[in-house]
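can u do me a favor
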């Protein structure tokens, strides 16, 4: 028996492909921060690929919530009969999450494998490449609850291989195996394709304020003729007075696959800021991607924009409404 750990919908999509490639028996644990229809939808997808599954909402806001979550995880592992028991392989992505560090410390595995946690494993300024120093209290707490792998380097040291949807990027682990999320989708060679323009939100009000974010959305609709808005999971604002808001239980990758399959004569233009979803989206046929910035965003997220530009993404200057090479 193998165990695979997911905390996000994208990780579930990757997990599905890992399970198909390895063709083993799996216990799937879905451990999201929060509980909503989208998470439940992807838990169902994971459930369809595994012999056993469990869903545990991670709560980390207070020490009391953290202890309660750890206790739920311990009970879950005991009910699955894997707590301090021997299993074959364990797979995880979010190697910096204390709850997952706890799980892999309480299971006796033969081999450990990692897979992508968004783009944290390829973005050179991420905490995966530059781990944050843990406080003495954090280190002590992890020792008290028996965590054997308390940080990123300790997990990377035992990872046998890394499954990635970014095979052409420098990864935190040299030994990689490519994963392809989207198969059997072909580009439509039709010069008369209709165009649908979608803005992929990023809850920028948390960084630049509500008024500045709303102004950007208004300007983008005017300058780029945006049709629809897909909110970020942490989106706080309602833009329905400006654009048609797409509410879906699917993440943008799955949503576009359905759209491309149903609308063979449609070309999709995705406008966003520094969303890491663009790396997987550009694998899709008939999809063009544009990274939008203004002076304020460039100053605040210059490293991210430079990284995206170095990967040949098209950057558009909202202040001038012209392409930046």
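np, heres the sequence
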């Amino acid at each position: 028996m193998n165990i695979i750990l997911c905390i996000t919908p994208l990780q579930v999509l990757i997990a599905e492909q890992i399970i198909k490639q390895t063709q083993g028996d799996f216990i799937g644990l879905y451990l999201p921060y929060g509980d909503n229809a989208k998470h439940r939808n992807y838990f169902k997808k994971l459930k369809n690929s595994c012999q056993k599954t469990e869903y545990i909402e991670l709560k980390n806001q207070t020490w009391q919530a953290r202890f309660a979550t750890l206790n739920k995880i311990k009970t879950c592992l005991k009910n699955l009969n894997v707590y301090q028991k021997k299993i074959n392989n364990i797979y995880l992505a979010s190697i910096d999450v204390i709850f997952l560090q706890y799980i892999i410390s309480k299971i006796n595995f033969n081999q450990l494998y990692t897979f992508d946690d968004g783009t944290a494993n390829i973005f050179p300024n991420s905490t995966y490449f530059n781990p944050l120093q843990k406080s003495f209290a954090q280190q002590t707490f992890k020792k008290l609850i028996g965590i054997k792998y308390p940080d990123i380097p300790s997990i990377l040291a035992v990872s046998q291989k890394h499954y990635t949807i970014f095979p052409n990027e420098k990864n935190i682990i040299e030994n990689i195996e490519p994963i392809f999320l989207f198969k059997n989708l072909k580009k439509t060679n039709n010069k008369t394709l209709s165009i649908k323009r979608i803005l992929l939100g990023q809850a920028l009000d948390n960084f630049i304020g509500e008024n500045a974010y709303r102004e950007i959305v208004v300007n983008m609709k005017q300058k780029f003729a945006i049709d629809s808005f897909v909110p970020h999971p942490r989106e706080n604002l309602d833009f329905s007075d400006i654009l048609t808001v797409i509410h879906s239980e699917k993440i943008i990758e799955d949503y576009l696959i359905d759209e491309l399959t149903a609308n063979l004569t449609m070309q999709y233009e995705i406008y966003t800021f520094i969303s890491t979803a663009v790396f997987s989206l550009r694998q899709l046929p008939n999809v063009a991607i544009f990274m939008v910035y203004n002076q304020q965003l460039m100053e605040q997220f210059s490293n991210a924009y430079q990284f995206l530009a170095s990967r040949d993404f098209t950057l558009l200057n909202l202040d001038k409404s012209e392409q930046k090479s």
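DSSP finds twelve helices and 14 strands in the chain. hope that helps!!
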